[in-house]
Task: inverse folding
DNA sequence: GAGTGGTCTAGACCACTGT
DNA sequence: CAGTGGTCTAGACCACTCC
C-alpha cells in the first residue's frame, strides 16, 4: 500500500530520516529512538521494515540496542592510542633495569591509561606443537614444540576484554630457564623482553602486520562489541639480533576503541 | 510448531550447520548454497528465519550474495601488503632523482602489484579553508587556506576503487610553485615528496594513525565492498625537517584486501 | 519463463527490564 | 504489569539473470 512516489525500498525513507536526525545532532548521543511500533505507525510501514532500517543504523554504528529498554543513539567510543613504535622500544629498554623498576608499571597499564587495580590480567601457558601457520612465521618445521601463551586483559568493573593476544615461542630457545614455562610468574616484570633477556636473546626488529576484519562470535561477546564493530588483528613478529624469529604474537583489539600509531623516521638528504 | 529440544533461536541450528560445512570445507569457496526456499524446507523453518541465518553468515564474511544468481561461499580475498615503513623512505629517495627515473613507476603501481595500464588514476584539486579538524592536525588556524587533493585509484577492469585519499597542504608553504596547484600535472612523477622538494621542503617524520570502522554507504559502493567488510582509515601526518607539519592525508583502504606492515628497528644494547 | 534473493505485510508469542 | 526489542510464521509481489 501507500504512495509510490519513491522508487527505493520503503524503509529507506525512515533510514535517511533517522540518519539525518542523528548526524545533524537533532538526536543526540544517548537519546532514545521511538519504539519500533511507533516508528512503524509514523512512517506507515510494517514493523519488519522498521527493523530493517534500524539494523542498517546498527551496522553503521550509529545506534545501539539495550534490550529491552530501547534503541539509543550511540556515543562515539573513545579510542585508546597504542603507539608500537615507542612502546616496543620502551619495553626493550626496561628489560635490563633492576627488578624494582621493572616491577613499577606493566605495559598494559601504561598504554590503556588505566591504573593497575582497574585491570584484570590473565595468562595461560601451554606447550604445543606448532601449527603450519605459526611454524611458517617462526621459520621452523611444523610440529616443532612451541610455548603458547594466551594473555587477556579485562576491565575490572565490566569484565570486558580490552585486548587479547596469543604468543608463540619455540621452546628450544628458552628451555635454559624453566621459570619461563610457569604461568604463575605472570605478570612477569619487564614482560617478554626481559624473559628473553634471561636466556640471552636480544630483540632487534619487530614487524607488525595489521589487518582488520569482523569479530568471531566469541570475540564479539568477550569484548562486548556492539554490532557493526570490526577488530584489528595484528601479527607481531620479533627477530633477534642474530636474525632468528624468536616470537610470533597474534593480537586482537576492539576496532572501535583502538587507534594504532606508527612513526616513521626518514633518513636525511645529503 | 516443531520440537523444542533446543532453547536457542530456531535459525541457530541452520546457522551452525552451514557455518560448520563452510569451515570444514564441505562447502568450498565458490560453491552455491541451497536456495532460501530449499533451506526453509530442509530445516523446517520459515524463509524469514533462513534469511536471518544467511545475514549472519554474510556479516561474518563467510558467504556473499550474487543476486539473483544465488548465495555462494566466499573466496577469501587476497590482501595486498602495504609497507609504509619502506614505502615512505622509497618515495623520499625518489624525490631527488632525475625526471626520467621518477617517471618510471608510481607508488600505486609499486604497491598494488599491478601494472600501470591496469589502473585508473584520478586526482581532484581544490583550494579550501581548513576545517577545524584538518587545521588542528596541521597546526594552523581554522580557516587558513589549504589545498585539498583527492586521489582515487581504480582497477581499470572493474572500476572498483582500490584506495582513496584526501591530502591537505597549507597553500602558504607551496605557493612559490604554481604548478603544484594544477591537477592536470598528476600523476606527478615522484609524488608529493618531489612536489615538496620543488619548494624546498624535506620531510623528516611521518606518523600513521590507523583506525578501523565500517564503511559509509558511499565508500561501500565505490569500493565494491561486500557486506560485513570494514575499512582502514589512516591519518598520515608529515613533518618537515624544520618541525612543521606540512601535509595531512586521510587514506581509506578496503579492509578485506589490505594489510599494513610496519617495521620497528630497535636500538641495540650496549 | 523459471528461479533467485529483496522487500513487504499483518499478525503472533517470548524474555526481559523498570516501575 | 506495561513496554521493549527478538524471534517467528505464512503468505505476497518484484527485478533481475540465465537459459
Result:
Amino acid at each position: 500500500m501507500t504512495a509510490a512516489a519513491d522508487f527505493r525500498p520503503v524503509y529507506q525513507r525512515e533510514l535517511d530520516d533517522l540518519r539525518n536526525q542523528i548526524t545533524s545532532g537533532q538526536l543526540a548521543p544517548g537519546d532514545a529512538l521511538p519504539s519500533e511500533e511507533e516508528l512503524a505507525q509514523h512512517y506507515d510501514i510494517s514493523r519488519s521494515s522498521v527493523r530493517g532500517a534500524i539494523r542498517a543504523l546498527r551496522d553503521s554504528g550509529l545506534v545501539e540496542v539495550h534490550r529491552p529498554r530501547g534503541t539509543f543513539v550511540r556515543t562515539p567510543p573513545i579510542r585508546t592510542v597504542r603507539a608500537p613504535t615507542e612502546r616496543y622500544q620502551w619495553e626493550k629498554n626496561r628489560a635490563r633495569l633492576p627488578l624494582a623498576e621493572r616491577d613499577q608499571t606493566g605495559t598494559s597499564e601504561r598504554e590503556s591509561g588505566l591504573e593497575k587495580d582497574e585491570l584484570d590480567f590473565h595468562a595461560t601457558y601451554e606447550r604445543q606443537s606448532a601449527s603450519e601457520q605459526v611454524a611458517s612465521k617462526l621459520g621452523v618445521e611444523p610440529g616443532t614444540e612451541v610455548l603458547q601463551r594466551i594473555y587477556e586483559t579485562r576491565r575490572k568493573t565490566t569484565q570486558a576484554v580490552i585486548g587479547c593476544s596469543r604468543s608463540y615461542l619455540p621452546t628450544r630457545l628458552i628451555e635454559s630457564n624453566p621459570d619461563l614455562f610457569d604461568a604463575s610468574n605472570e605478570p612477569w616484570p619487564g614482560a617478554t623482553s626481559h624473559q628473553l633477556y634471561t636466556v640471552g636473546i636480544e630483540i632487534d626488529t619487530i614487524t607488525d602486520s595489521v589487518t582488520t576484519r569482523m569479530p568471531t562470535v566469541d570475540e564479539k561477546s568477550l569484548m562486548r562489541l556492539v554490532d557493526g564493530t570490526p577488530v584489528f588483528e595484528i601479527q607481531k613478529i620479533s627477530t633477534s639480533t642474530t636474525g632468528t624469529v624468536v616470537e610470533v604474537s597474534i593480537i586482537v583489539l576492539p576496532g572501535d576503541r583502538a587507534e594504532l600509531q606508527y612513526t616513521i623516521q626518514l633518513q636525511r638528504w645529503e
About this structure: DSSP finds ten helices and ten strands in chain A. Residues 11-73 of chain A form a domain with the Arc Repressor Mutant, subunit A fold (CATH 1.10.10.10). Strands of chain A lie at 63-66, 70-73, 80-82, 119-129, 145-155, 161-170, 203-213, 231-240, 245-254, 258-265.
